[in-house]
Amino acid sequence: MMDNNEAKIDSIQAKSERLEKIIKGYGKIAVAFSGGVDSTFLLKTVNDLSNVNTVAFTFVSAVFPKQEIDFTRTFCADEGIDHIIIEVPLLDNEDFIKNTETRCYTCKKLLFEHAVELAGELDITHICEGSNADDESDYRPGKKAIKEMGILSPLKEAGLTKDEIRFLSRKMNLPTWEKPAMACLATRIPYGKSITKTQLSMIEKAESYLADLGFSQVRVRIHDDVARLEIMPEDFEKMISPLIREQVYSELSDIGFSYVSLDLKGYRTGSMNESLK
To answer: What is the pLDDT, as a whole number, of residue 1?
Structure first.
């Protein structure tokens, strides 16, 4: 009789095989590659299965951490994948910087408009992105833009969850298998508050500093001049230890925050969406 662990592995394998069938049905593919867990797994899988050159599109804007862009360059160079950087001036778009509840829709629309135009010039038949089955459970208006523009989401279509993608990534020896979840820096700013380059820079610097201190999963949510830190509950004790607490407060003050607070609920995805419920 099969135990639960064996059943889970069989289920993951079945989804992996389903993903391969989906991808093999495409022609020349471009993958929207952010350097996160999902898009790295998707890009590697597509490249391994494709009979033609796979192209990776990486969007560059003030809302994406610079270290992620550096990773995409290195990964594509190591894998021999054609890599195209697409600079998108999101902060020039008034609808985006207004930061309404549909900001994610506006963002995805702007990003993939550039990608679709470039794909046409390169005779690329399909563009894929890395949404997974778990993304259905959160408020993500960007899904509408992806659907409208004909962008494909093969991981979601195959039914793969984030944990399953991490499992398969580990089997493939991908460096991202245990990488913390990432999201664009604009998600740290409350809806209705205008997005500025200064705020994005403050958030990026603060999160990079906390990561260097060893906090594995972190979000710095900005509320005017207050930094609300979301970390894993198991890291609370470390954060409130006198030395670390004083270091964090001092560094974030230097970055530009007047106040630094610890969110007692801890890290969770989409916490800014909680105000919508």
So the answer is: 43
pLDDT for position 277: 61
Among residues 171, 202, 226, the one where a domain terminates is 171
**The two three-digit tokens of residue 61, written as one number:** 């804007």
Low-confidence ranges of the chain (pLDDT < 70): 1-3, 137-138, 277
Residue 24 and residue 136 in one domain: yes
Q: Are residues 143 and 167 in the same domain?
A: yes
Per-residue pLDDT, 7 = 83
User: Has residue 91 been placed in a domain?
Assistant: yes
Domain around 240: 185-276
CA distance 121 to 240: 54
Give pLDDT, residue 3. 66
**Can you say whether residue 168 is alpha, beta or left, with left for phi > 0 and alpha for psi between -120 and 50 degrees?**
alpha
Domain stop point among 139, 171, 203: 171
